[in-house]
Structures are given as C-alpha cells and as structure tokens.
Amino acid sequence: MTQSTQLLRARRFLPLFVTQLLGAFNDNLFKNAMVLFVVYSVYNSESSEAIFSAVASLIFVAPFFLFSALAGQLADMRDKATIIRLIKLCEIFIMLVGGLGLALAWQGIALHTVAIPLLLVAVFAMGVHSTFFGPIKYAILPQHLKSEEVLAGTGLVEAGTYLAVLAGTIVAGWISVDAAAIAVIAVAVIGYVSGRSVPPAPPIGKIEPLDFHLVRAPARLIRATMSDRRVYLAVCSISFFWALGTILFIQFPPLAKNILMAAKEVASLFLVIFSIGIAIGSVTINTLLKGTVSARWSPLSVIAMGVCLIGFELVCEAWPAFEGPDALMDVGTFVLQPLALPLMLSLLGVAIAGGMFVVPLYAFLTTFVEKSQTARTIAANNVVNSGAMVLGAGVAMALNFFGMPIVKQLLVVAAACLASAWLGYRLYRAELTAR
Description:
By secondary structure, the chain is mainly alpha-helical. The chain has one domain: Growth Hormone, Chain: A (Up-down Bundle), CATH 1.20.1250.20.
C-alpha cells in the first residue's frame, strides 16, 4: 500500500481532504458559473469581458490581503478543527446569497442592479472563507501527519484541490445557471457535514492575544515569517507563480470566445486541462523527490512552463477562422480542428510544469518553521500571494486597457517565467547552503 493510499484511508487526513476538496469544488463551480455567464451572456467585447474577469479576481483576492494575518493567528491560537466547522457553516449562508444571485441572473431580473452585485458580494465572501480556511488546511498537516508524510500529504491536498477545481469547472461549463444556484448550496451543506469529522487539532505552544489591526498585524506577520531565507524565497516564488497564474485564468474565457471562436464549454475545457495538469505535476514531483522537500526541480519546471506557453501562443496565432453555421464552436467541433490537439497539449504542459514548480514550495512553508508557527507562515504567504495576484490582475487590466491583444499577453507571462526560475534557483542555493 502506497503512502498516499494509506493517508487517504486515515481519519487523521481523509475528512480534511474531503472538506477542502468540496470547498475548492464549490468555489470554482460558483466563480466559473458566474464568469462564464457574464462573459457569454452579458458583454460582447473582448476588453470588457477580460476586465470583468479581472475585477472578479480582484474582489476574490482582496480578503486574503486584508484578513490573512488574523486567519493565521486564529489557526495557531485556537483549535483548527473547531474553526473548520465554523468556516463551513458560514459557507452555507454565503452560497445562499450566491445562489440567489445566479438565479436572478438566469431569469434576467435586475441583472445589473441586483443580480451581479449579489454575485460579487458572494465572491468577496468566498474570498473571506478561503482566507480563513487556507492556513488551516496546510498547518494542520504537520500536526496530524508524521514528518515523512508531510510532502505526500501536501501533494495530495494540492492534487485534490486541482481535481476539485477541475470538477467545478466542468460542471460550471455544462449545467445551467439555475442548476448551479442549487448545486452550490447543496455542496456547502455536504462540506459542513464532512468538516465535523476532522479530528481535534488544539493549539501548540503559547497562546498569544489576537491582533485585529489590518495593517500592523500583516506587517508584523510577514516580518517574522521572512526571517528564514528559505521560507522568504519560497513565499516570493509562490507569489510570483500565482501572479502569472492570475493573468492566465483571466485570459482563458475571452481568449476562447474571441480568438478561438469557441463556446463556453470550451473555455471550461481549458480550465479543466489546466487543473488536470496541475494535479499531475503535484503527484509527479513527489515521486521525483521521493518525499524529500527540495526546490531542486523548480527552476527547470518553470522554464518548461514558459516554453509551453510560447507553444500555446504560437498555436493560437495560427488558429484558422471558423466558418461554421453557428457563431461559436461547441466542444465536439472544437476538438476536431486540426490545431486542437497541439493547443491542448501545450496547455497541459504549462499546467504540469506549474504543478511541479509550486508543490515543493508549499512544503517548505510547513516543514522549516516550528509547528506552532505553521498557520501564521501560511497566512503570511497568503498575504504576499494576494498582493501578487492583485498585481497580476492589475497587469491584465492594464494590458487590456492599452489594447494589447489577448494572445500577445501570453508572451508577457512566458517571459516572466524567467524571473520565477531565478527565484527558484536562489531558493535551491539557499537550501544547499543550509544543509
């Protein structure tokens, strides 16, 4: 029996795994149902569609920047299992609001005055939900798992997260908006039930007062976390990666619609392929490293990601004009196009390389700090990540504002992979020095 299989059968891991998987599924079902509906049914401009996608991303990321410090403190100073139950209970009420917004949008009732604002409120609230859940799902691993199981557990959490993203993305692209409105509420209820089975995880070490200050707390948290050079470089590398990922996810729906002339199911397919690739990369890197936490493969992985992005851009540039009877291709028509296979393979390569790059970096954050500090370390990482993702969304908005074609924006991301490789190389050098 493999280590991963053993973990999936263990009560100290399985309920957490299922709970975070359901949360990631619901998050992506809701966000993608919203974005795809707005892009394909409300706006009719490549620039407007990309800007709305960027705004939705900014709204979702904002809570990470505002509340991650408090989330990390809570996770280290309170029982993590208790916090999980409270968070999952809140998700039910958030999805009631989001479901109402989806239902109103589907009916076309007060679309711009009520429906879309309700959707964006729910997106912000789900950002808050993820802000408080994120530090726990990684920080609880060293508390419940053996030291030699942490990398495997982290890989499973990452792979499970992206498989959930995959499932949520597929469902969002194929079911109606009214069905999505019902589904997000039902999944939230199931997630709450599974969260109640997570074993207790009481705080380790001294209980300190909570700092609720929205500026002082994150500044102090980041300063304390960055004292270890390996953790500092891991946070910088992860943040740069997610800045690039944010730009890519913003580009996918308008690129599918306006460049490839494909329906929303194809835009959903792109996100599915990306999610599968990240999951494959997450498991592959654990096999290559044989359970050792190391950035050895990170520079090469992110360079490979950039090469695959260039290939993806070249295929998009060469994509022929579609002249079928319908304005947009469905999935069946799309996959029969001559360039569809190289397009999907290049995108899969981008995602696999990305997964191989980022998974060991998350393991750094939970293995090179004291167990009593792990949640705050993840929270500090989330603060910096959110700033990087805001920057990535801002870059995407600026590129669209100044008229850079969506396809050419892919080359900007590919070039930025060199900077990410440099950070990964510095991390590996710091790792060797600390041995």
